[in-house]
Amino acid sequence: MHEYAEPGVYEVCLTVSNANASDTYCEWVEVMVTSTGEVIPGGMVVKVYPNPAKDYVVIEPQQRLPQGAFWSLRDALGRELRHGELPEGQPQLVLNLEGLPGGVYFCSIEAEGIAVWQGRVVKQ
To answer: What is the residue range of 102's domain?
Structure first.
């Protein structure tokens, strides 16, 4: 994983080698801003399990959720796929992953326009 400081187009290369040979594969990728919400440093602690998951994943905040919180699930391009409200004090959210292809997704919990938690969900 690599974090880019600025949006733009970057050449990304992967080099694999062993005792016999080495090979490099490169692709151009575009890095875009997918959210302007600020993540609170040291924000909410959340358990996510099972992860990787097949049909569902449990998102379990370890603190009381702020009033008016909601969750969203986005793909790798930042497109919102699913979202919903999180009632205050709800102990967990069971997120249905059925119908989604295998891959990495990004889940967030927001309150008052600020991301209080962001995490990855891997679907097998």
So the answer is: 46-123
C-beta of residue 21 within 8 angstroms of C-beta of residue 7? no
Task: Report whether 63 contacts 44 (CB < 8 A).
Answer: yes
Q: In terms of pTM, does the model score above 0.90? A: no
The Cα 48–Cα 106 span in angstroms is: 12
Residue 111 maps to which CATH number? 2.60.40.10
pLDDT along the chain (124 residues), means of 10: 80 92 90 57 78 91 81 91 83 89 91 84 92
Contact 91, 104 (CB under 8 A): no
Could you tell me if 37 and 115 are in contact, meaning their C-beta atoms sit under 8 angstroms apart?
yes
